[in-house]
Q: What sequence folds into this?
């Protein structure tokens, strides 16, 4: 299809915008590299995984416990929040009366805007002491998972909701005409059609979970060690940056930039994984 | 017939599960909200909204902080909405789903979505404040937030446009519309519900952000006189009162309550406007 | 069923209105900016989150007495204060400790004292802990409250994050090394420590004396423990009797001049003692 002049101008300006948007992440990575360069040069990349502990003031930089912390908290939160979020979206569309669905949507939207600090405060003052009754110290992996699930639920739910509302009405009419049950309609027609949007929601939720800082910092306990149970205290890579950046100098500071770099690398890996898993199917 | 009965049973089970999940989410939300309301209502008054903070935020109100926050959000939206609309249109309308350019941009945005907020903070501090010489300012904070909400806005808009039936495009082409006209007069209005969701999520995310703002828009709690002034965002204020200022918890809750109510208003207006535009622009 | 091609002209009108609003906001802000770039002296102070709230109050009072001077106080931590002062991004840096030997290129000025005390949950029957007991608890050699005279419960050890000056002082005072400490929870700022201990009946932590004193008086469920027989209070810190004491400083690169010097003199003067006490720290001069 040939494009008119106006269209060509549009396309080129759109490309410019897309380039800017895409370049931001490159800029951030470059910046992280510059920040982490001193310690990379002095200690080498291996020390971040092989040193005996994380004691940056003594030039020991093992980040693996924090890596586990980030991964476990994120996996826990995403696997808890995703089913709840998708069910919430289905609830709005297929189960709730219209008025209730409207109120429920407003609830979820509000939930999306509550600051992480408030979630953190609530987690620290309400949730953690409750978990502490079962097993001390309360501020733990479990607390982190629960708080993060609540935080990312609205993101996944709203995107799932939007995806489901984009399923053409005619599909539903067809199902109704064929006498499909509600669940069959959902499972065979709605969810597959909305798959791309659902996946977007989960990716966005995962991104938010792994990048969340303040709430996690307040409820996870932050002790540097690989957790043995969900009641153990953990420190995530983000909390590590937030806790220590303000007071870090020289190589300690640089090693926190390495934390940021590793986080970005994990996310890069996740995105690649999603790409491989879904190649040719997401937008198919 | 046995199959029909099983179908009914299965439908009932799914319905119960969905209702349970929805009620669970609502209960957690109401619990959280009740906590904020109970903690903050006592301090909330008209003067709380119109006075400047005194005694490190323990006394007085939050007027300058509200103004700063509004300005930061305005900068964020002015910068991010056009950029993300343009990128989303390009990705959805002009790039084949499996093309190299589109894939690279899309993946780098996915990575951007996962970059931790604290890393955005460090990046904003280095790039906007120092490299671009904007200093601690509302401008730096807003632009940093714009980078942060970009992936969310782009993904939701793109999803919205992609999920539109191709009938729209074919019909527009058949009428001899240029691509530009098709996009602005047909596709964007039709994708408005997704745009609104993206906007609401972004405003929520931006106004809930803390870590990225401490390092960019700063800590100064006086009334800003321009975008080049440093201004304390509402979440930074909540964080400082919650974990730094002894005796600040009550005002932290009151401030959080103000934020939640403001979001409720913004969300309602956004969906109302969305509905109105939708009804006026296309007949569904 | 759908007819996507009927749209009214008012749609364009709305879009234009929105656009107009946006440009208005930008125009007003840019205009406002031009107006404010008058004959003002702007002083930037950055650094320790412990010092920032008190400095903010001092700055406000200074501004009200010296119209034409604008002081921007930014937080971010002691190392930020050092780095910003050193590289000229800030006129004054704030640190919640004294200058180290590696920082002799900067000049330090003491503005206030602060003490550090051990806190436990209010319901904990423990009345006092000796230095030796504290060392053992933090090293993990004592892990049950019954071993130091309390009830039979596992101790939750709350420690400060690496690099914090409170941690450095704590370690130095008790002759500990951070690698020996077996912490269950690690916290950042003082209030987070208070909230963590208040939410966990079997925990022990250490925070600023002023913070502990204020929170305990407000009914928060914590109990500050005396150190070597001296009660944990700002009064004891003021007398110099309290063993665990630190000095909060502001730093400059080279000798301060002009308005920067005026601000530092003001921050050290008796005129701001009520502000320092108002943030639960102890003024330097009696």
A:
């Amino acid at each position: 299809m040939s494009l008119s002049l106006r269209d060509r101008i549009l396309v080129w300006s759109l490309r410019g915008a897309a380039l800017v948007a895409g370049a931001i992440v490159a800029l951030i990575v470059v910046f992280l590299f510059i920040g982490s360069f001193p310690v990379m040069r002095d200690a080498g990349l291996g020390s971040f995984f092989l040193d005996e502990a994380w004691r940056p003031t003594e030039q020991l930089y093992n980040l693996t416990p924090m890596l586990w912390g980030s991964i476990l908290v994120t996996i826990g939160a995403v696997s808890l929040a995703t089913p709840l979020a998708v069910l919430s979206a289905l609830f709005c569309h297929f189960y709730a009366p219209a008025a209730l669905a409207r109120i429920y949507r407003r609830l979820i939207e509000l939930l999306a805007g509550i600051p992480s600090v408030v979630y953190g405060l609530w987690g620290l003052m309400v949730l953690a002491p409750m978990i502490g009754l079962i097993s001390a110290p309360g501020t733990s992996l479990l607390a982190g998972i629960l708080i993060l699930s609540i935080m990312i639920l609205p993101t996944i739910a709203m995107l799932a909701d939007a995806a489901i509302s984009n399923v053409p009405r005619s599909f539903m009419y067809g199902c109704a005409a064929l006498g499909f049950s509600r669940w069959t309609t959902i499972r065979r027609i709605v969810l597959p059609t909305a798959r791309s949007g659902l996946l977007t929601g989960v990716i966005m939720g995962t991104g938010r979970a792994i990048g969340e800082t303040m709430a996690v910092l307040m409820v996870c306990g932050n002790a540097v060690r690989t957790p043995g149970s969900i009641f153990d205290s953990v420190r995530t890579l983000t909390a590590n940056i937030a806790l220590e950046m303000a007071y870090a100098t020289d190589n300690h500071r640089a090693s926190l930039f390495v934390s940021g770099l590793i986080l970005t690398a994990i996310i890069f890996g996740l995105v690649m994984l999603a790409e491989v898993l879904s190649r040719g199917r997401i937008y198919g | 017939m046995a199959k029909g009965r099983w179908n009914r049973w299965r439908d009932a089970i799914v319905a119960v599960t969905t209702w349970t999940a929805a009620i669970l989410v609502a209960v957690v939300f109401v619990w959280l909200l009740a906590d904020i309301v109970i903690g903050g209502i006592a301090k909330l008054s008209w003067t709380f909204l119109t006075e400047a903070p005194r005694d490190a935020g323990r006394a007085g109100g939050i007027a300058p902080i509200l103004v700063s926050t509004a300005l930061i959000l305005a900068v964020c939206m002015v910068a991010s909405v056009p950029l993300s609309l343009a990128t989303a249109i390009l990705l959805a309308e002009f790039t084949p789903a499996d093309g190299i350019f589109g894939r690279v941009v899309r993946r780098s945005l996915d990575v951007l979505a996962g970059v931790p907020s604290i890393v955005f903070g460090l990046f904003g501090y280095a790039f906007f404040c120092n490299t671009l010489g904007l200093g601690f300012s509302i401008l730096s904070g807003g632009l940093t937030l714009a980078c942060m909400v970009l992936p969310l806005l782009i993904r939701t808009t793109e999803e919205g446009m992609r999920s539109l039936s191709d009938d729209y495009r074919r019909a527009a082409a058949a009428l001899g519309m240029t691509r530009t006209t098709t996009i602005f007069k047909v596709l964007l209005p039709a994708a408005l519900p997704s745009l609104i969701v993206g906007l609401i999520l972004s405003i929520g995310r931006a106004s809930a952000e803390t870590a990225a703002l401490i390092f960019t828009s700063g800590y100064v709690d006086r009334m800003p006189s321009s975008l080049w002034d440093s201004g304390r965002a509402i979440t930074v204020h909540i964080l400082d009162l919650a974990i730094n200022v002894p005796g600040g918890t009550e005002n932290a809750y009151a401030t959080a309550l103000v934020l939640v109510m403001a979001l409720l208003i913004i969300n309602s207006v956004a969906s109302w406007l969305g509905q109105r535009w939708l009804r006026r622009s296309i007949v569904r | 069923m759908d007819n996507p091609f009927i749209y009214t002209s008012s749609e364009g009108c709305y879009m234009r209105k929105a656009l107009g609003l946006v440009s208005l906001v930008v125009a007003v802000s840019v205009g406002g900016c031009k107006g404010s770039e008058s004959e003002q002296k702007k002083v930037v102070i950055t650094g320790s989150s412990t010092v920032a709230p008190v400095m903010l109050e001092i700055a406000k009072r200074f501004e009200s007495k010296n119209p034409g001077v604008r002081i921007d106080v930014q937080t971010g931590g002691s190392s930020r204060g050092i780095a910003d002062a050193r590289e000229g991004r800030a006129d004054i840096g704030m640190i919640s400790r004294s200058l180290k030997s590696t920082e002799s290129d900067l000049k330090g000025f003491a503005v206030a004292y602060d003490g550090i005390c051990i806190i436990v949950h209010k319901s904990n029957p423990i009345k006092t802990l000796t230095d030796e007991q504290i060392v053992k608890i933090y090293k993990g050699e004592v892990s049950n409250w019954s071993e130091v005279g309390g009830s039979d419960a596992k101790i939750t050890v709350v420690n400060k994050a690496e690099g914090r000056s409170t941690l450095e002082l704590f370690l130095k005072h008790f002759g500990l090394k951070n690698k020996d400490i077996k912490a269950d929870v690690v916290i950042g700022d003082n209030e987070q420590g208070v909230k963590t201990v208040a939410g966990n009946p079997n925990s022990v932590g250490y925070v600023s004396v002023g913070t502990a004193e204020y929170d305990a008086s407000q009914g928060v469920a914590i109990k500050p423990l005396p150190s070597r027989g001296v009660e944990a209070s700002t009064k004891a810190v003021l007398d110099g009797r309290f063993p665990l004491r630190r000095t909060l400083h502001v730093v400059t690169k080279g000798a301060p001049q002009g308005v920067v010097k005026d601000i530092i003199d003001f921050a050290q003067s008796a005129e701001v003692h009520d502000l320092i006490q108002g943030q639960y720290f102890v003024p330097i001069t009696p």
About this structure: The first helix of chain C runs from residue 10 to 36. Confidence is low (pLDDT under 50) at residues 1-38 of chain C. Chain C touches chain B through 49 residues (CB under 8 Å). Chain C has two domains: 6-113+248-283, 114-238.
